[in-house]
Structures are given as structure tokens and as C-alpha cells.
Amino acid sequence: MWKNIIIHPEKCTGCHLCELYCSFHHFKVNNPSRSRIHVIRNEPYIDSPILCIQCGLCINVCPVEAIIRNKKNGAINVLIDKCIGCAQCVFVCPYGAATIDPVTKKALICDLCNGEPECVKNCPEKVLEYIDATKAVYYKNLILSKLLKKESIPLEPYPK
């Protein structure tokens, strides 16, 4: 059964341990810029992790088919040997979760640590949960509804 990570943003303290555990798991370095999860701060002092929700939009735009869905756990996987670092996945990601590794110049997208997410296991505040994908939908909808209640930001047309 597939699982997904959900976020409880109200619990996040901004410690960034999730970023460190992620980069260490994948690259054996503590370097947040090489992490597949990123903690952002919205003033005044509201921190929240951003990570791939495994939607798969990146799969369809990759020109060399270097991004696939793992049939075992449903995670997005980047085939590093095939990735050309074109950043099409970065452009299409609506959450800003896909990035380019500053060292390898290849795509970085959460792969759920092959079903054992380090960020979830090591978050001291239990901000992240790895739950059944069908249950995750409820939490994603709940978070979206909370976001929609926030003050809207007027969008201005592009200057001519």
C-alpha cells in the first residue's frame, strides 16, 4: 500500500533537522541545499516544511524520461544517470519542491527514502507523518482549506 508524507505546519519550530537528515541520508553531508525537503519561513515567524507531494507532474515533462514512479511505494524517483539537469521538473512543480542539486546539477525530488523517510523518523516535533495515501488526501485538503482562509494577495497584471 502506498503512503505519503503529510505536514502539520503548526507544529514546526524551524529547526531544519529534516533538511539535515535528508541531505545526510542521500549524500552523507549536512547541507540543506542538497536536501529534498526545505523549511521556509513566512513572517512573522511561521515555519513550515515544503516537500514533494508525489503528484507526478514532473514525470510528464522530463524530456529524457529520467523521472519515474516507483511501483513498489509510489514515490517519485529520479534516474540520476539519465537526468540532464534541464530543470523542467523545477518549472512545473507547483509547490517548489523540485530543485536542482548544486553539486551534481541533477534533479532533487523527494523519493520517500525508499519507504522509510528520514525526515519523518527524525522530526523532534512530529511535524511530519508518513501515512496511507488515501488518508493523506484528507489532510492535504484540510491544509489547503486553511491556506484559502488566509488573507489573499492581490495579483497585479504583468507590466506592459
How do the strands and helices of this protein lay out in sequence?
Layout: E1 3-7, H1 17-27, E2 37-42, E3 46-51, H2 57-61, E4 67-69, E5 76-78, H3 88-92, E6 99-100, E7 107-108, H4 118-122, E8 128-132, H5 133-149
Antiparallel strand pairs: 1-8, 2-3, 4-5, 6-7
Structure description:
It is a single chain. The chain has 160 residues and is α+β, with helices and mostly antiparallel strands. It has a single domain, classed as Alpha-Beta Plaits, CATH 3.30.70. It contains 5 helices and 8 strands, in the order E-H-E-E-H-E-E-H-E-E-H-E-H. The strands form 4 sheets. Strands 1-8 form a two-stranded antiparallel ribbon. It has a two-stranded antiparallel sheet with strand order 2-3. Strands 4-5 form a two-stranded antiparallel ribbon. Strand 4 and strand 5 form a beta hairpin. The protein is globular, with a radius of gyration of 16 Å. The mean pLDDT is 90.
Helix and strand element order: EHEEHEEHEEHEH
The averaged pLDDT comes out at 90
Number of domains: 1
Strand content: 15-25%
CATH class: Alpha Beta
CATH topology: Alpha-Beta Plaits
Low-confidence stretches: none
Brief description of this entry?
The protein is α+β, with helices and mostly antiparallel strands and 160 residues long.
Offer a few descriptive terms.
160 residues; Alpha-Beta Plaits; two-stranded antiparallel sheet; 20% strand; alpha+beta; 8 strands
